Amino acid sequence: MRCSTRLHGLLRSIRPILVLLLFIFPALLIMQDIDVEAHIERTQNGSESSPSSIARDYWPTNGWRNSTPEERGMDSSKLEEMLGRIEQEDWSVSFIIVIKDGYLVFEHFFHRLYRPLGKIDLFSSTRSVTAAVFGIAVEQGYINNLSQSVLDFFPDRTIDNMNSWKESITLENLLTMTSGFGWDEWTTVYGSSDNSYTQMRISRDWTQYILDLPMDTEPGTAWNFCGGDSQLLTAIIENVTDSRASDFAEEHLFTPMNITDFRWLTGAGGVTNGAGGLQMTPHDMAKYGFLYLNNGTWDGNQIIPEEWVQRSLEPQVEITEEGSYGVDSHYGYHWWMHDSSGVCFTHRLIAGRNIFIDPEHDIVVVMACSTPQDYYPQEDLLYEYILGSLIEGVPLTLPLELLIVVGGVAAVVVVLFGVRVKRG
C-alpha cells in the first residue's frame, strides 16, 4: 500500500513532464523532417546511410540555403581555426566552401578575384565532368559498351606508332586512365616543352596528337594521369552525338541543375577541351559535387545514371604510392578516392580546384589554391579541420525509433496514471 502510494506520488510529480512530451513529440517528428514510410522503405532496402536515399527538404537548383555549422553538427570554432592556420602558414588558398546536409554552412574567399558566383577555371577537375557527360552519352545509347576499341571511333584517321597494344585500348581504359599512352604531365611542369599536355595544346590537331603517341604500357595494366585519355573521351562524344561536347553537357547535365553561367573552351580542331577547359562558379562546382553525392539524382530526376556514378566512385585501379603523394588512393572513372575514409575528389595537382564529397557524412567541399606551390594543403585542411569539426557522439537528428519509444512510454504512463486516479 505504501509502495503504491509512493508510485502514485511519483506519477503525479512527473505527469506535467509526460504531458509536455506528448505535445512535443509530434513537433519533433516534424522538425526531423521524417517521412515514416520512406524511413521504413530505406531501412528495408538497407540504404539508410546513403545520401541518395535522404529525403531532401529542398534542392539548390536556384541557389544554396544557409545554415550554421552547429545546426549541422559541426564546430564552427574548428573552422575558424582552419583560417588561422592558412594565414599562419601563408598557404595560397583561394576559397573554401562547405556544404553539409545540403546546406551552405561555411564559405571563405581569401582574394577579391574569387567570388561565389564568379567563374573560375576548373583545370583538371574538368576531367571528372567529361566522364560524367560520357556516362550520359552511354545511357542514351550513343555508345554500345565500354569494351569497344577506341580506334573504332576514328576510322578515317591514319595513326602513327600502331601496334597490338594501341589497337586494344578500350573506352574503359580511357575512363580509368590506363590507356598505356606515352604521356607525362605528372613529373614535368605545365608549360614545359617536355610536358605532354603542353605539347598537345600547341599541336594543330589535339586528337591526332594523342592517337599518334607511342605506347608505354599494355592497356589496363598501369595507371597514368593522362589528360589525353580525357581529351579522347570528348572527341568520341562529339563523333557519336554529332554535337559539341559542351553543348551536349549544357542540355543534359548543366541545365537540369540550373547551371547557366559556364564556359567550356575548345582546342585545336574545334574539339571541346575535356582535359582542362571548363569554367564555372564555385557555387555551381558545389552543385556538381552534390549531384554525385546523391548518386546522380537531382530533385527527382536521374541526370547521371546511378550505376555510372557508383562505378565512378568505386576503386577501378590502384594508384602507386609515388603517384598518390604517399596516401592510400584508387582511381574510378575520373574520380580519385581515399581507401581509408571513403572520401572522393576530382583533382590532385597544380593549383588544385577540387571538389570533395564525403558520402558518410553528407558533405561536399569545394576548395582551390590560387598558385602552384610545393605543398598543396587541401587534403590536410579537409581531414584536420573540416571533417575534424564534426562533433563526435552528437547525432545530427534523433533516430525515429527513439522518438517513437519516448512518445510511446510517455503515453502509456499518462494513461496508467489516469486509470490510477479514477480507481483512487
Description:
This protein is of the alpha+beta class and 424 residues long. It folds into 2 domains: 2-34 and 397-423; 60-389, DD-peptidase/beta-lactamase superfamily (Beta-lactamase, 3-Layer(aba) Sandwich), CATH 3.40.710.10. It is built from 14 helices and 13 strands. The strands form 3 sheets. Strands 2-1-13-12-11-10-9-8 form an 8-stranded antiparallel β-sheet, with helices on both faces. Helix 1 runs antiparallel to helix 14 (400-423) and helix 4 packs parallel to helix 9. It is globular and about 90 Å long. It starts with a helix and ends with a helix.
Give me a quick take on this structure.
The protein is of the alpha+beta class and 424 residues long. The chain has helices at 2-32, 36-45, 76-89, 126-139, 164-167, 171-175, 196-202, 206-211, 227-241, 245-254, 282-293, 306-312, 378-386, 400-423; strands at 93-100, 103-109, 120-121, 263-264, 278-280, 297-298, 301-302, 317-318, 329-331, 336-338, 344-345, 353-358, 363-369.
Category from helices, strands and their pairing: alpha+beta
Reading side by side through the largest sheet, how are the strands ordered? 2-1-13-12-11-10-9-8
The tally of domains stands at 2
Share of helix, binned: 25-40%
| SSE series | HHHEEEHHHHHHHEEHEEHEEEEEEHH
The CATH architecture assignment of the largest domain turns out to be: 3-Layer(aba) Sandwich
Q: Main β-sheet: number of strands, strand sense, barrel status?
A: 8 strands, antiparallel
Distance between the termini: 12 Å
Alpha-carbon Rg, integer: 27 Å
Please tally the helical runs, counting DSSP H or I stretches of 4 or more residues. 14
The global form is: globular
Q: Tell me the CATH superfamily of the largest domain.
A: DD-peptidase/beta-lactamase superfamily
Class of the largest domain in CATH?
Alpha Beta
Our estimate of the beta-strand percent is 5-15%
The average pLDDT value, as a whole number, equals 83
| Beta strand count | 13
Any idea of the CATH topology of the largest domain?
A: Beta-lactamase
Low-confidence stretches: 27-49, 394-403
